[in-house]
Design brief:
GO terms for molecular function: L-amino acid transmembrane transporter activity; neutral L-amino acid transmembrane transporter activity. By secondary structure, the chain is mostly helical. The protein has one domain. The protein contains six helices and no strands. Helix 2 packs across helix 4 and helix 3 crosses helix 4.
Length: about 130
């Protein structure tokens, strides 16, 4: 989010759309690869929607073509898109992978989460506070 805000202030919107498009294509392809791997390694788990494997494999063929063409035609834009994705790696390690965090770090993460939820209106309002229960 911070990288996107900086790019919006410095660059033009067209470049930002190119970065985001590459990131979206990359994430969609990785998701479809995950779907195929899970269908192969865990065929018995419950799936609410099950499609023929020909559909995701066909999608991956087109996806690979678009991704390779994007890398060939605009390598700098794709590189910046990858850098934007990689800015999430430290956040993952600090927020998810690191299990035994000090209490001050946990409180900071909880307060940032609560602030973000209030800012974006992503949590339903509760009937009463936790103290009342």
């Amino acid at each position: 989010c911070l990288a996107t805000l900086i790019i919006m202030l410095v660059g033009d919107t067209y470049t930002l759309i190119n970065y985001v498009s590459f990131i979206n294509y990359l994430c969609y392809g990785v998701t479809i690869i995950g779907l195929i791997v899970l269908r192969w390694k865990k065929p018995k788990i419950f799936r609410p929607i099950k499609v023929n494997l020909l559909i995701p494999i066909t999608y991956l063929a087109f996806w690979a073509f678009l991704l390779i063409f994007s890398l060939y035609s605009e390598p700098i834009v794709c590189g910046v898109g990858l850098i934007i994705i990689l800015t999430g790696v430290p956040v993952f390690f600090l927020g998810v992978y690191w299990r035994n965090k000090p209490k001050c770090v946990n409180r900071l993460i909880e307060s940032v989460t609560c602030w973000g939820q209030k800012l974006c209106f992503v949590v339903y309002p509760q009937c009463g506070s936790a103290e009342e229960e």
